């Protein structure tokens, strides 16, 4: 008779910890949800944590119309998708040269990229503003597309080059012996193996770009060029503030990224698993 393996206490503690972390992460979403449907007088009387007795849906339509949210939603989608494509493409090509091409000084180059993506955005605001003015890109979506595309490339290059440096030399050498050019190796060997990782990286860039606030605030003063995150600021003025409208704006603002994640959740998990195995 085979003895059953005794399960220790550690897995249960890990599970409890994960549940607590999930509840902490979901708590702000719950607060935004219940307060976005709560009338303002009920919010003032019962507070933030009280569940709404009367459900008010008017805040959503009012906010959507006041800020022209359809336009801002299109702007954010356009910027996030283009940044993801540009950053992943540049990261992939640069990492291929560093990780597999074995360029001279690769450690110094990787160190440069590592330092580059740790620089705070506040330190880059004025130089970026000056350069965008110089090239007539100020108040244009292309200004933040180029900025975020290049800034994201630092992290993407560092990550992908670390992965590519672990590729088996025997596989690459066999391809070279068979007469494969560097472009053929890139297209037929490296790209298929890294496709799941590239998709995960593109999703990360999409979500990060979607949630950016500071640089779009400086670079996009015109209402027609602003993004979803900037539209939330309209609910708070210098002397007035509507907390229930702010909650409705927050709920509308982050829902697209949550929906995007839920749609591609299975693909993301598969990409992470395959990337880890390879």
UniProtKB/TrEMBL annotation:
<keyword id="KW-1003">Cell membrane</keyword>
<feature type="transmembrane region" description="Helical">
    <location>
        <begin position="189"/>
        <end position="210"/>
    </location>
</feature>
<feature type="domain" description="ABC transmembrane type-1">
    <location>
        <begin position="73"/>
        <end position="264"/>
    </location>
</feature>
<feature type="transmembrane region" description="Helical">
    <location>
        <begin position="245"/>
        <end position="264"/>
    </location>
</feature>
<feature type="transmembrane region" description="Helical">
    <location>
        <begin position="12"/>
        <end position="33"/>
    </location>
</feature>
<feature type="transmembrane region" description="Helical">
    <location>
        <begin position="79"/>
        <end position="101"/>
    </location>
</feature>
<keyword id="KW-1133">Transmembrane helix</keyword>
<keyword id="KW-0472">Membrane</keyword>
<dbReference type="InterPro" id="IPR000515">
    <property type="entry name" value="MetI-like"/>
</dbReference>
<feature type="transmembrane region" description="Helical">
    <location>
        <begin position="141"/>
        <end position="160"/>
    </location>
</feature>
<keyword id="KW-0813">Transport</keyword>
<dbReference type="InterPro" id="IPR035906">
    <property type="entry name" value="MetI-like_sf"/>
</dbReference>
<dbReference type="GO" id="GO:0005886">
    <property type="term" value="C:plasma membrane"/>
</dbReference>
<keyword id="KW-0812">Transmembrane</keyword>
<protein>
    <submittedName>
        <fullName>Unannotated protein</fullName>
    </submittedName>
</protein>
<dbReference type="Pfam" id="PF00528">
    <property type="entry name" value="BPD_transp_1"/>
</dbReference>
<dbReference type="GO" id="GO:0055085">
    <property type="term" value="P:transmembrane transport"/>
</dbReference>
<feature type="transmembrane region" description="Helical">
    <location>
        <begin position="108"/>
        <end position="129"/>
    </location>
</feature>
